[in-house]
Amino acid sequence: MKPENAIEVHNITKKFKVYLDKGRTLKERTLFSGRRKYENREVLRGVSFEVKKGEAIGLIGHNGCGKSTTLKMLTKIMYPDSGTIEMNGRVSSLIELGAGFHPDMSGRENIYINASIFGLTKKEIEERIDDIIEFSELEDFIDNPVRTYSSGMYMRLAFAVAINVDADILLIDEILAVGDVAFQAKCFNRLRQIKSEGTTIVIVSHSLNQIEQICERSIWIHDGLIRLEGSPYDVHPQYMAFMAGNSLAESAAKKKAKDEKAAANAEANGESENTSSEEEKDNKKDAKRWGSKEVVIDKITVVDKEGKERDAFLNSEEINVKISYTNNAKLENSVVGVAIYRDDKVHIYGTNTLIDMSKMLPLKDKGVITLKFDNIPVNAGNYIFDLAFHKPDGFEYDFWRDAFRLHIKNVKAEVGEISIAHSWECEN
Amino acid sequence: MFKRIKEIYEYRTMISSLVKRDLKGRYKGSVLGFLWTFINPLFQLIIYTFVFSIVMHSEVEDYYMFLFVALIPWIFFSTCLAGGTTCITGQKNMVQKIYFPREVLPISFVISQFVNMLLSFIVIFAVMFVMRYKFNPLALLCLIPVMFTEFILALGFTFILSSITVYFQDMQFIMGILTMAWQFLSPVMYSVDRIPAQYQTIYMYVNPMAPIIIAYRDILYYGKVPELITLLTAVGMGVLLFAIGWFTFDRMQRHFVEEM
After folding, report:
1. Beta strands per DSSP E along chain B
2. Please, which residues have CB within 8 angstroms of residue A249's CB and are 6 or more apart in sequence?
3. In this structure, how many other beta carbons lie within 10 angstroms of the beta carbon of residue A318?
4. Could you tell me the domains of chain A?
């Protein structure tokens, strides 16, 4: 194992016997043993990757692609059929929250049980218990039985324990959607802090957004093999396009079958018609853009205070982004979001109308939305903007990665990622 | 092997908190709470006394005590046999999602049953004291290895049965029946003298619980040090079954998650 690596996975494979009719009882096992059919399903067909110490990676892929199985093998609750997994350091997994909680016991007692299941000794738990309680924000309720907790409180307590288990390697599976928005933000900040302390992190999530916020690298697993690996910024658009393409291909195939049937019927009636290939052109996917197309962004223009179109601005200048859209599906409203990246793919900022005003914007059939920045107080550089129309749950109508780029200038030679308004004062 | 023991030791807090959760959680919410741990065996004893001294008079002197000193250890063992089968499958969520040495579950189950037995023994000692039974200190000292042997024997069986149950769920129901049969094949309700002489040797060496129960009764009811051969047989069989049990468990646990 290379000394700079925390995890090395070499060519692991895993097969599951999927019983079509699983017999577990004696009768079924003996009498019908010949009749019990099963399929060997290869979940992983040779996956290898390395994770450096302190690195955060995300595993993505559609359901059943093998990403959770991979994580389970990293956790050692399953073992590969062939291949090896080497890990260097103490491993902790945030896969199941609140394991071992007893409803009749107090929050405090449950912290002890839950933390001990993560392998902490009594002494270690005692060192952490104040942090855990503080993180959970349940100081006033900590000695009440957890059955009296709301589900949000329950999850907060569970997450507080899990996140305070020190580890060299942290494995996380789809659990970051805990509690209210404020608590989620807190969890994320804590994760970032953990990462900055040098912990290696592996995340499995369907939320690409979460992965983009934490991970330097994404591994896309498809049908038991690694399909693509690289920066989330590069991998995710291709993954999204692939997923969209898949569903388009599926519906296209269905449509084709339908058309053929119709054509056959038409032919029988002595008519024939050529369907245009325009639709196919439409289906040609753009790796930087995906969505269901119920609302589509037509054009984006960036103008200054005077309404003049520009692509370079000072970081103190007003910037107006005019987004022209077509509302194909006659939707009443939509969430509109924006994300800003520096051209080296550092995520600078992101927001949407839901976060800003907790509402969606009303839509016309065709219209223009103006997004006004009083200024974008970043330091000099090239910045990439993503724009999206989407549902509150994240379902995307039109996601346009790299919708436009701006060059931002700074008259002062400040350093760092952003420019913070400030002043100096001398006291006499 | 040594690494495994070390790892289980590192999870000692998990074992103790699972035991605590089981013991405290069981009577949580009830008015008498933890007192039930003592009330249960006490009333059991009262009922046996009533039945066997008044209704079904037995020729054995103080039959209720004769029975009780064997029954309490037997209940510990049989709970491990029958209830222990599900100690892995019952914690499905935990086993499927979190890594910990799987041995932790059977170990904490058996410990919690063992603690229950010890608490019942407090009742036995209290009754013995009130009834002015003679305490033989040397014999009582023998109670420690006997209890220890029964513990590792029960753990060995729980290892085997809990791992088999993951693959074959009928095991839990089969054990319900087998345990009942086993009780009648063990000298719990009768003295070992009742077994025909020509079968006594085989009786002693086939049933690992026979020497253990005989030893308990010698110590507590007769107030004498058990024969060395009884003790050695008990220890020998206990260690053997513990080793077999752990070995079986270790081989089978790798595929627990897939089979559940």
Report:
1. none
2. none
3. 15
4. 1-88+208-246 (3.40.50.300), 289-409 (2.70.50.60)
Amino acid in the structure at residue B232? L
Q: How close A236 comes to chain B (CA, Å)?
A: 27
pLDDT one-digit tens code per residue, A103-145: 888 888 889 888 888 888 888 899 989 988 988 888 888 898 8
Helix (H, G, I), strand (E, B) or coil at B97: helix
Measure CB to CB from residue A93 to each of B12, B98, B169 and give the nearest one: B98
The tens digit of pLDDT for each residue in A292-320 reads 888 999 999 999 888 888 888 888 889 99
Residue B186 φ/ψ, nearest 5 degrees: -110, 155
**pLDDT at residue B237 tops 80:** yes
Residue A150: HSE in the Cβ half-sphere, 13 Å Cα cutoff: 7
Instruction: With CA atoms as reference, report the closest residue to B94 among A99, A382, A152.
Output: A99
Q: Which residues pair with A7 in a beta bridge?
A: A51, A87
Residues of B in contact with A121 (CB under 8 A): 10, 12-13
Predicted ipTM of the assembly? 0.76
Q: How far apart are CA B22 and CA A168, in angstroms?
A: 32
How would you label A382-411 residue by residue, b for 16+ Cβ within 10 Å and e otherwise? ebbbbbbbbbeeeebbbbbbbbeebebebe
Please give the structure tokens belonging to residue A269: 């009636």
The H or E element spanning position B201 is helix B197-206
**What is the predicted pLDDT for the residue at A368?**
92
| A314-339 residue pLDDT tens | 888 899 999 999 998 888 889 999 99
A-chain residues within 8 Å CB-CB of B25? 102, 104-105
Chain B CB contacts of A112 below 8 Å: 13, 17
Q: Are A121 and A100 in contact (CB under 8 A)?
A: no
Using one digit for the tens of pLDDT, what is the confidence trace for B152-198?
999 999 999 999 999 888 888 899 889 989 988 888 888 888 888 88
